[in-house]
Amino acid sequence: MPDLDYLVIAPHPDDAELGVGGTILLLKAQGARVGILDLTDGEPTPHGSPEIRRRETDAATAILGLDWRGILGLPNRSLVADLAARHRLAGVLRELRPRVLFAPYWEDAHPDHVAASDLVDAARFWAKLTKSDLPGQPHYPERIIYYFSVHLRIQPLPSFVLDVTVHQEAKMRAIACYHSQFIAGRPTTPPTLLDDLRDRARYWGWAIGAGFGEPFLTREVVGLRNLRDLL
Ligand SMILES: [Zn+2]
Known about the structure:
Low-confidence stretches: none
Helix content: 25-40%
Bound molecules: zinc ion
Distance between the termini: 36 Å
């Protein structure tokens, strides 16, 4: 397993693309080592199968240019932030040693997303424990940044928005790889689900005076080294 700078933890394959796709492309363009850990395989769904989902995930992974992608194998639809899941995730964090974690925003209609958010918080803490039976060496990711891949029509105020304008088209191509989730069986008259996603990215871009943006939230204060990159 490679040491990573950034690890996106997703309840299901496609959540990372939805919430962090543009940022992943931006980080990769800047030379960072970026990975995604999908907690479940996302199945069953109405138009998917484990094989279809694996093919779709591989195609999206290639577009994002990830350094690593793994699946933790926790149960889809029944994800629980219990001690066994915390142990498994903390072990992976100690192997990959990311500096920054991306976790799903904690308020959601989907119980898997709520559980995933809790699980990342708890596993981050466990990963630093000494005198434990966890694999690898103690490691504490410096930050958790929460992303929005939310099944509620809510708009929490983000802590910051990243300008992903130059990567927006590639992000949409990565999302469109998940045909079974976002295209199959859905209305084809505009606005389609993909139109909605693009429009919301445009809204956040507008909010920061840019083309397209991805919003993020942190519980801890974000520090800046300089003001040059402010939009
Ligand atoms: Zn999901």
